[in-house]
Amino acid sequence: EGLAIDPERVEAIRALPLPSHKKALQSFLGRINFVRRFVPDFAALVKPITKMLKKSMAFKWTAEGKESFEAIKEAISQAPTLINLDFSKDFILYAFG
């Protein structure tokens, strides 16, 4: 029980090829934006490819950009199911740092 990404959507995203121009990259980012709440550190994962959209930069894939593209697709394929909290039960909170 909970909220999960439709497996067919996950497979559709995984099958997307590396975008070949800025408009295609914008389209990819728009397509994956709806799943951002399922992916921990989504913004950090997509940062290298969002930098490629700057007008001052020529569109060219770097190793970091390609790694980011594949990492976000992998993170989406492993996204957890989100559940509603049951406030009638006790919570255990762990803090790191």
TrEMBL record:
It comes from the Eukaryota. Gene3D superfamilies: 3.30.70.270. Signal peptide: none annotated. This is Uncharacterized protein. It comes from Taxus chinensis (Chinese yew).
